[in-house]
Amino acid sequence: MEQKMREIKYRAWDRSRKVMMSVRSINYADDGYAGTTTVQSIDGTSYVNGESCDLIQYTGIKDKNGIEIYEGDILKAEDGYTGLINYRLEAAQFVGFNVGDKYVNEEFDTLYNIDGTLNTAEVIGNRYDNPEFVKGAEV
Fold it and tell me: What is the pLDDT of residue 109?
């Protein structure tokens, strides 16, 4: 089977206006560290990642409805669990963490199928627009 490259793209959360934005470009400072990243939105406004905006990466996976899943998205599984998508640095992968009352911060087992879809869950929001979903979770 031919392996397909994951699509790399981002969106950004504007901290002051409290809105999600499409990203036109990402510019790294000469030192190349992410802490000095400038993000330009579609409307041409520039932001500094981590100060005026949060840069959010696409996982390369879609939910059961074909909606793209980004880091920080909240998923609802068919079995009723609600999960938050985070990037786990030590494993270099995106993982889902349960954020329901009973299972806060317990890691999901498998995030996606071999074809890059998640057939048993759907995006119901994100940690920025819907902070009530992750209240009390260590995220």
Answer: 47
